[in-house]
Structure formats: structure tokens, C-alpha cells
Amino acid sequence: MSTEQWVPTTAHWGAYEAAADGNGGVQVRPHPDDPAPSALLGNVPGIARHTTRVQRPAIRRGWLTGGPGPSSQRGREEFVEVDWDTALDLVAAQLDRVRNESGNEAIYGGSYGWSSAGRFHHAQSQLHRFLNTIGGYTASRSNYSFGTSEILLPHVVGSSAAVLGYADSWATVREHTDLIVAFGGVPVKNTSVNPGGVARHSTAAATADPGVEVASISPLADDAPGGGRWYSIEPGTDVAMQLALGHVLLTEDLHDSAFLERCCTGFDVFAGYLRGESDGVPKTPEWAAGICGVEAVDIRELARRMAAGRTLVTVTWSLQRAVRGEQPVWAGIALAAMLGQIGLPGGGFGHGYGSMADVGGDGPVLQLPTLSQGANPVGTFIPVARIADMLLHPGAEYDYNGTRLTYPDIRLVHWAGGNPFHHHQDLTRLRRAFARPETVVVHETHWTATARHADVVLPATTTLEREDLGAGRRSTHLTAMHRVLDPVGEARDDFTILAGLAERLGVRRRFTEGRSARGWVEHLYTRWRDQLARQGHHLPEFDQFWKAGEVRLPQVPEDPPLVRFRRDPERDRLHTPSGRIELHSEKVASFGYDDCPGHPAWLPAERGGALHLIANQPRTRLHGQGDVGAVSRDSKVAGREPITLHPRDADARGIAEGSVVRVFNDRGACLAGVVLSDRLRPGVAVLSTGAWFDPQPDPQHPGQELCAHGNPNVLTADVPASRLSQGCAGQRTHVDVEPAENPLPDVKAHTPPPLTRRP
Ligand SMILES: Nc1nc2c(c(=O)[nH]1)N[C@H]1C(S)=C(S)[C@@H](COP(=O)(O)OP(=O)(O)OC[C@H]3O[C@@H](n4cnc5c(=O)[nH]c(N)nc54)[C@H](O)[C@@H]3O)O[C@H]1N2
Ligand SMILES: Nc1nc2c(c(=O)[nH]1)N[C@H]1C(S)=C(S)[C@@H](COP(=O)(O)OP(=O)(O)OC[C@H]3O[C@@H](n4cnc5c(=O)[nH]c(N)nc54)[C@H](O)[C@@H]3O)O[C@H]1N2
Ligand SMILES: [Mo]
């Protein structure tokens, strides 16, 4: 390919243009119309051909020689490269054996993860479709992003989509909103990203300068967008502040009784709790100040300002990714209900502003071209973050949203497009869990920690090495994703890999429907185009779209559920038992969970360890994706992931800027490189997720291991948000920090594992 042939493509960090560089690599440039291209684009050239790309199918030596079976050698052993036929024969034989001996329930195909952009080559959809054609699999439900809210919201507002599926655009906010009260702030660093990628980063542009007053409530100053006021709060205590704001609205008669009467139920119970009638503790600003560290006068003054104009109460998704993470979301809705502005433009409750590019985006809410996954004949599922519990405790029972579920007995794990050794908590425990199944199959583009913990690694292409079409939720355009590079080594796209397995299991035709990958891309587009045409929206034919590189998505009028509900609460009842917004839920109360009672409540969590660690999303990459790219590598300190400490906490421990520290707690330890900043609250440290997990012997503690690179998930606890949601609670934990002693282990995660080639 000529070096100057720039073609369109898209990634989760947005649509952009790419061209081969003439040396086998790729060069990139932003989309010419993008008002705020993502910094993450800078990782692309470095990751495309990095030495950690998986070149050939590879099999863990012990599994190849000893056959399937539980093994603590996963993640510790060398791999043998084999040809495709050998690898596919072995995997197909194990899928067949397990389903015949134990039924398809023994195959775990949840395969959570962000994979890459592209509507056809979406690894999970491909895998689920394939597994469904061979009799199904144990699935996972919801996600690590907002898995707690997704279970809570139907109890409160009738559906999760009512809140998560509709958010006022930044244009509406600028026009109508006077004040945004942002719990978790509005972190601009997150807003270039969404699944599929937006074509124009209007949200990132807007969040950098929201044009309205923002009260940013966060332990980190940098979560406040341009010009916003920073309310420094103790992590995990937002509910106390929210209740105190509610207490002021109640006792100063600033709440909207008419709205509460007309649209809500259970306010009497909640108000009694605010006054302290049920527990003897009035939730005054003075009470809250002692917990959350925000001054009582500031809380009181903020409450009065909230009642004085159009106010949007927002909660980032990070707040629910925590133990008892239901509470700040429910309390945020209760506050917005007291202000009476739910369903008004620019007012009410927003969830995920500053979490994702589509929240506040101005593209249409539109069904995009979608690959059908078929139906799963197996009904068994887990809430996604219970993966380690499931593998460790087959047959055990647990609570979930008012029901009791039982963990299945998993013998084979098949993962494509996700990295549990990035996303899950307590990675030492996850390693023990991954030792339990008989076979672990992973499709990966790179030698991630998950690939290293597999028995069979199948090399997948990246989006640059194949053709597809892509767009994110609320994107303005659909992008024609052209191929830029030849596949690395012997890599194949997930569709082709799975078609090879389907062939061996006698279902190739059912899986492929006789189409090639290009045939599918064209088919998905054309079928979608026909659907839109029936709704009166006329888009160009495939060839024209492909040549133009993108097509503008039609604007479809939307009437968000809460807007309709506010207009006529009797006609457009919510799908809650009362038909209204439930500030007290009799149903949730009836479950009897002490970690999620019937109304929003302050439920103090245990403190352990001197520093509160925030393990938030990384500014320099997407989760683990791009960690070997230039933007991520440039941010490392002494070759390790940066940990940000307050100078006060560093001084107290004799820790210097730029040095390497050992971060530790009861569960594990990692090394990290020190950055000092007074833009975070004393007592708080930040170690973002995504440094590739690098378990090695801990030189300071013989017999123990640490992550030499700085992955915070060796420290986070593998516990659910609550028995209601069983959601991921990985955002925060407690740790201590000490200077690391020499000799320091080298980081090995950015070089491939030991590989030999079978002659
Ligand atoms: N402590 C802590 N942990 C967290 C969080 C937190 O806040 N704190 N946040 C959580 C959240 S919100 C999320 S969403 C998760 C994210 O967790 P993941 O989504 O699992 O993380 P990614 O690194 O995006 O993993 C996607 C993988 O897919 C691979 N891949 C890309 N393209 C392809 C392809 O075409 N085919 C195949 N087969 N593979 C491909 C990439 O190489 C990458 O390894 O992390 C969670 N973990
Ligand atoms: N650059 C980049 N952007 C991303 C991602 C990425 O990996 N990289 N991941 C994407 C994904 S999958 C998701 S789900 C979203 C996640 O979106 P979020 O979960 O909202 O993002 P985080 O950065 O984890 O957390 C946002 C902020 O919440 C603050 N916070 C943490 N704990 C508390 C607390 O107890 N109280 C208060 N008030 N604030 C607190 C932290 O300071 C943190 O910076 O981000 C998306 N955007
Ligand atoms: Mo996420």
C-alpha cells in the first residue's frame, strides 16, 4: 500500500484517518472535522506492530503435553507455537468433549471486555453467536461500567434506560442549566471515549469548557472541568453530603412538594430518615461535615444555590463502582426529586456526565447495524463481576436482586475481546480462580496478562487489519473502516477463527450463513439501510458509503421516558410498582439486604490502611489497551505506572518525587513511580488502571509476589457493591505506601512470554 493513502477508520477513542507508513507500520491523523481529537490516538502507531503482538497460535506447554486439567501453572509457563489446524482441532475437540460430558453450561462464554470498534468484527458478538450455534454457554450480565446502577435503577425509575439511555446534550445544558452539582466531577479525561467511537468529539469539547457553573465534588481537583469550583471530599462519603443537602432543602422548605406529591412515592419515609426519625441522627450539614470533610457552611450554601435556579445533579459512574455503590446514585435521584426538576431540560438527574463521550452527546439515539447473536439455549448466567467466585465455588448459592442463584461448574473458559486480568479485582485471587477450569481459550491481539493465563492463545487481527463499519452510541456519523495493514504474523479475525471452529463442529454454514467477512459488512449495512428507509430516512448505497468513508446518521426525534412521565405521570407511568419515582422502594426493602435498604442511606464502609487509593480510568490509554503505545509509555515514572501522592503523605514516609514505591495491603502489592501533587486531597492516592499486570517475586518479601509494573487490581477487593446488584466495586480501596528497596525487578509485561516453535 502506498504511504500516502489515508483512509477512514474508527476506534473507541473516535474516528480518525490512518495510512501505512511504508515500513509495515501505520501513521495516524485526526478526523479533519473533529473539534477535540483524543490524545489516545497517539498510542496507535506504537501498538499496531509492537513486539507483544501475538503472531501465531500458541499453547501452554503443560496443557499441550499433559492435556486439559486444572493447573496452577497458568500464567507461569512457556508457550509452544503451533499451526492453525493443530490449534483449532484441539479447541474444537475440547468444546465438543465438555458439552457432551457436562452440557453447554460448563462452557463460560461471558467474555466481558471492550474489544475494539466495528459492528461486525466485535469479538464478543462473534463468540456468543458461535457458542449459540453449538448449544450455548454460561453467560455474564451487565458490565463493570455501571453494573450497580443497571440493577438499582429499574427499582427507582422503572428502567435503567430512563437514566442511562437518555441524557440532555451539552447544548441543552448550556442553554438551560444554571448549576451542575457534580458528584465525581466531570472528568474531561474520560470523555473522548465510548464503545464504537464518536466521529466528532463534541462532548470532550463541551466538558473542557461547560459554559455553566459547576460544583465539582471529588477528592481530585482535576475532575473539575475548566473553571469549576472544587469541593474536596473524602472518598466514599458522597452520600453523607447528599443527605445533608437534602436536609437543608427539607428544613428550609426549599423542596418542591408538588413534584414530590405528583411524581414520587416514599418521600415521607426518606424525609423521616433525613430528620433522624428512624435512627436518631438528623442528617445536618454539621453531621455530614464530620464524615465527608466538606464544611457545613459550604454544604448549606450549595443547597440554597441548588434551589435558586435550574440545577443538574450528576453522579459519575465511578461512584457506583464501589461497595454500597447503589447509595450515591439513589441519593442523587432523591436530591434531584426534591428540587422538582426531573424531566425539565437541563435539570434533574444525570448519570455519567464525564464518564463517557455519549453522555451529553448530541447524536441521535439510533439502532446501529448489528450482528445477530442468535439465542442461547443455556439460561445460566452470572452478574459479570462474580467471575472469580464462580470459578472458585461451583455449586455455591448467592443473593442477586431478590433472587438466589447458584454458580455453575465451569470446565472450559472461552474469552475473546476482553482482559479479566485488567478488569477484575484482587488479581491474586483471580489467578487462583483461573487455575480451576480444564481449558482456557483466549483470542488476543497482544500478549496481555489474560493471554498469558490461557492454555490456547489464538492471534486476532486489529481493526486496522480488516474491514468493518463503526459508530458509537449517539455518534453523528457511521464510519467505513478501511483496511490499512496486512495482518501481523498469522493473525486472523475472530470471525474467521470461529468459522474454523464451526467447521470442525459441523456448523460452519449456520455460523457464517455463507458470507465472507466483507459480505457480512455489506449485508449489515444494507439491512440497516433498508430498516431506516422504512422509517423514511434515506441513506446511500453501500458502495457509495464505502467510497465516501462516512455517512451522517439521520436525526430521529426522541421523547425521553422521564420527560414524558413528568408531562403526564398517570398516562406515562414508570415501570416501578407504584408507577412513580420511588424514593422508598417497598420491593427493595422486602429483600432484607442490610447493604441495600429500601431508601438511600448512609452506610459507612470499613476503613483499612492509611491511604484511600483511587483506581480510576487512565488518562493515557483505554483500560489496558494502548499501554505499550507512546502516550501511555511517556507517562510512566521510572518505568512504572505513576502513582499520585499528596506531598504531605509522601514526606511522612520519606518518599521522593520520581522514586519507586511499594504500594501494599493485605491482598497484595505493586511497584509504582511517584508523582507529587497538591491537587488531590491529603490521605488520597491515585493509581489508575491499565498497567499490564506483571506478577513477579517480591524482593522485599520472599515467598510473596507483587506486580512490578503498577496494576492497582492486585490491591482492590473482590467484593460486590451489594447483594442487590453484585456489581463491580473496584474503584477504590485502602493501601499503604513505602519506598521500594533495590534491586527492583524489571518490568516484563511489555515483552512477549517465552515462546518456542514446534518443529
Ligand atoms: N480497579 C478498577 N478496575 C476496573 C475499573 C475501575 O474503575 N477500577 N473499571 C472497570 C471498567 S468500567 C471496565 S469497562 C473494565 C475494562 O476492562 P476490559 O474491557 O477487559 O479492558 P480492555 O483493556 O479494553 O480489554 C479489551 C481487550 O480486547 C483486546 N482486543 C481488542 N481488539 C480485539 C479484537 O478484535 N479481537 C480480540 N479477540 N481481542 C481484541 C485488547 O487487546 C484488550 O486486551 O475494567 C474495569 N476494571
Ligand atoms: N481516557 C479514558 N477514558 C475512559 C476510559 C479509559 O480507560 N480511559 N474508560 C471508559 C469506561 S469503560 C468507563 S466505564 C468510563 C468510567 O467513567 P468513571 O467511572 O466515571 O471514571 P473514573 O475515571 O474511574 O472516575 C471518575 C472520577 O471519580 C472520582 N471519584 C472516585 N471515587 C470517588 C468518590 O468516592 N467520591 C467522589 N466524589 N469522586 C470519586 C475520581 O476522582 C475519578 O477521577 O470511562 C470511560 N472513559
Ligand atoms: Mo467501563
UniProtKB/TrEMBL annotation:
**Which species is this UniProt entry from?**
Saccharopolyspora dendranthemae
What protein does this entry describe?
Biotin/methionine sulfoxide reductase
Q: Which cofactor does it need?
A: Mo-bis(molybdopterin guanine dinucleotide)
> Mind telling me which PANTHER family this protein's record contains?
TRIMETHYLAMINE-N-OXIDE REDUCTASE, TRIMETHYLAMINE-N-OXIDE REDUCTASE 2
Origin: domain of life: Bacteria
Domain named Molybdopterin dinucleotide-binding is located at 611-729
Residue intervals of the Molybdopterin oxidoreductase domain? 53-504
Identify the residues that the record assigns to the Molybdopterin oxidoreductase N-terminal domain, covering every copy: 9-47
What SUPFAM superfamilies does the database record attribute to this sequence?
ADC-like, Formate dehydrogenase/DMSO reductase, domains 1-3
Q: Name one GO molecular function term.
A: molybdopterin cofactor binding
Q: Which InterPro entries match?
A: Asp_de-COase-like_dom_sf, CT_DMSOR/BSOR/TMAOR, Molybdopterin_N, MoPterin_dinucl-bd_dom, Mopterin_OxRdtase, Mopterin_OxRdtase_prok_CS, Prok_Mopterin_Oxidored
Enumerate the UniProt keywords alphabetically: Metal-binding, Molybdenum, Oxidoreductase, Periplasm
Q: Which GO terms of type biological process are on file?
A: anaerobic respiration
| Family membership | Belongs to the prokaryotic molybdopterin-containing oxidoreductase family.
Cite the CDD domains for this sequence.
MopB_CT_DMSOR-BSOR-TMAOR (cd02793)
Q: Where is this region: Disordered?
A: 726-759
Q: Which GO terms describe its cellular component?
A: outer membrane-bounded periplasmic space
